[in-house]
Amino acid sequence: MKKIAWFIPYPTEGSGGHRTIFQNLQALVNCGYECHAYIEDIGSGETPNQLKSSIHKYFGNIDAKVYLGFQPQEQYDLIFATAWYTAKFVRDVNQNCKKAYFIQDFEAYFNPMGDGYLLAENSYRYGLMPVTIGKWLSNKMINEFNTPSNYFDFCADNKVYKKLNSNKEKAVCFIYQPEKPRRCNIIGIEALGIVKHLMPDVKVYLYGSKQKTNVWFDHINLELINIEQCNELYNKCMVGLCISSSNPSRIPFEMMAAGLPVVDIHKENNLYDMPDNGVLLADQTPESIAEAIINIISNEEQQQEMSDQGVKFMENKDLETGFKQFVEAVDKMFEANYTGNTSIDRMYLAPPVIADVFLQSKSKDIAILSNQSVPSIRRSILYRGLRKVKRSIKRLIKN
Question: InterPro entries of this UniProt entry (predicted)?
Answer without folding.
Answer: WsaF_C
